[in-house]
Amino acid sequence: MNKVTITVLVLGSMLSACKKQEKALETVNLSPEKTMAISAATVSTILQEVNPDIIVGAAVNSNKFGVTAYKDLAKEQYNSITAENDMKMNSLNPSKFVWDFGIQGNGIEEKNEKIPNLAKDHGEKRIHGHALVWHRALPQWVTNVESNTPVAARADTLNAIMKRHIDKTVGFYSQYYKGGSPLLPLLKSWDVVNEAYYDDGTLRGNLNLDSQGNDIGSIWKRYMGEIYIEKAFRYARLAARANQNWKLKLFYNDYGHEYSTAKLNAIYNKVMELKPMTEGGDPIINGVGLQMHIRYNTPLTSIRAAIQKMKETGLLVHIAELDISLLGPNETSVPAADLTNRRNLQKSLYYNVAKAYQEIVPVNQRWGITLWNIGDADSAWGLNAEATLFDTTYQKKQNFWNFRDGLNLQLTP
After folding, report:
1. CA torsion angle for 342, 345, 351, 355 (degrees, to 10)?
2. What is the structure's pLDDT at 25?
3. 202-236: b (≥16 Cβ within 10 Å) or e
4. Which residues, 6 or more positions from 319, have their beta carbon under 8 angstroms from its beta carbon?
5. With contact defined as beta carbons under 8 Å apart, do 226 and 262 qualify?
6. What is the mean pLDDT of each run of 10 residues along the chain (413 residues)?
7. Can you give the C-alpha Rg of the chain in angstroms?
8. Cα four-point dihedral sign 307, 310, 312, 316
9. Which of 153, 174, 250, 339 is most buried, by the most CB atoms less than 10 A from its CB?
10. Contacts of 340 (CB under 8 A, 6+ apart)
11. How far apart are CA 34 and CA 32, in angstroms?
C-alpha cells in the first residue's frame, strides 16, 4: 500500500470520527433531557457518593419512618443522620432521673432507637447529635424549676440537671450503636449548645414569651449566667473522656449567621473564647454549625461572608440544617406570577451554597452539609415553601440536581 493511499485512509478515518463527535455534540445541544441523562451516567445520583471530601447528611424524624419512600431515601442518599427531634431533652429525658433511649429488650423497636438503628443497619452512617442544651424542647419538669425551687437554689439545681443529662446522654451514645473495625461510636458529634443568641447578638436570658406562649429566653442563662455555655461544653468533654470516646466532636449551633452581622460576630467571639479551653488536654469545642435556613432571595454574598467568618475560627464548619424556602417573610403562599422566578433562584442557591462551602472551607475543616429533612411534605417551612430537594411524593426536584452538581465541582480553597 503506497503513502497516498495510507494518507487518504487516515484522513477518512479522522473525518468520520469528527462527524461522529459533531453528531454527539448536536444531540447534547438539541436535547436537554439527554444532557441530563449523560451527566447522570458520569456523576452519581446518590448524594453521599458525589464528593469524597463532603459528608452529606439529612435530618430525619422517626415518626415518618412508616413512609417507605422517606425511609428509603434516608438510607440511600445520605451518610450522616441528624435526629430532627428524637435526641432533644424532652424526648430523651422526659422525667427527672428517667431517660428513654428506646432500649427495652423486648424485640420491639422503640421510638428513640429508630434513628440510631437506621444509621447502624444501613451503611454505618455517621450520627450527629442534636441537641444537648437548648432553651426549647425542655421537659415540663425542667421548666417547673422556676415555680417549685427557691430562687437562691435555681442555679445549682439547673446546673445539676444539665450535668446529669449530658453525662447520661453522651455516655449512652458513646457505648451503644457502634460500627467499623475497631468498633467505634457512630454518634460522632453533638450540638452541645443550640441557639444561645438573639438576632441582635445578645444572649437569650430573661423570660420572653412569644405569641404562642413559648419562652424564647433561656432558663439556663436566666439563672446560671453566661457561664452555662462553657459549663455545657466542659461537661460534654468530661463525659466523652469518661467513656473513652476520645474522638467525639463538640459543636456550637445557631441560625442567622447570614443575615445578622451582630449575631455572626457574637457567635464568632464566643467560640473563639471557648476554643483554647480544654479538659484533660482535649478541647471543649471542635466546631460550629451554621443552620442555613435560608430563602430563595438570600444574598449569596451574605452566605459566603457567614461561611468565611466561621472558617476563620479554625474550627470544623458544619452547614447543619440547610433548606431554602420559596416564601418571603410573613408569606403563606407564593404569588403565582413569581413562582417560576423564585424556583430558579432557589435551585441556583442550592448549587451555589455547595460551591461556596468548597471554595471557602478547607477539607480538614469540613464537617459536611446536612439537609433539613427529606421532602417538601416534611419541611418545617410548610408545603408551599417547597424548601427541600424532593417533592411531596419524594421525587427528585431540580433542586436535587443543582445541589448534586454543586457537590460534584470537587473544589478546594
Report:
1. -140
2. 31
3. ebbbeeeeeeeeebebbbbbbbbeeebbbbbbbbb
4. 289, 290, 292, 307, 353, 357, 368, 369, 370
5. no
6. 40 41 36 44 92 98 97 98 98 96 88 96 97 98 97 98 98 97 97 98 97 96 98 98 98 98 98 98 98 98 98 99 97 98 98 98 98 97 97 98 98 97
7. 25
8. negative
9. 250
10. none
11. 5
- To which H or E segment does residue 127 belong? strand 126-134
Closest CA to 88 of 233, 190, 220: 190
What pLDDT, on the 0 to 100 scale, is given for residue 107?
A: 85
CA distance 332 to 299: 21
Check: CB of residue 343 under 8 Å from CB of residue 326.
yes
Q: Which three cell numbers stand for residue 57?
A: 447528611
pTM for the model stands at 0.90
Task: Give pLDDT, residue 41.
Answer: 56
- Give 365: exposed, middle or buried? Use CB within 10 Å, 0-12, 13-18, 19+: middle
CB atoms within 10 A of CB 93: 22
Helix (H, G, I), strand (E, B) or coil at 108: coil
Query: Are 304 and 356 in contact, with CB atoms under 8 Å apart?
Result: yes
- Give residue for cell 415555680: 147
User: In degrees rounded to 5, what are phi and psi of residue 297?
Assistant: -110, 15
The answer to whether the bond into 182 is cis (omega within 30° of 0) is yes
Which set of grid coordinates corresponds to residue 183?
A: 468498633
Distances (CA, A) of 107 to 72, 110, 112, 114, 198: 22, 9, 14, 13, 44
Residue 290 DSSP one-character state: E
Residue 289 has which C-alpha cell? Answer: 454549625
Please state, in angstroms and rounded to a whole number, the distance separating the CA atoms of residues 204 and 135.
8
Closest CA to 349 of 384, 385, 317, 323: 323
Handedness of CA 238, 163, 134, 227 (dihedral sign): negative
d(CA 50, CA 42): 10
How far apart CA 303 and CA 309 sit, in angstroms, is 10
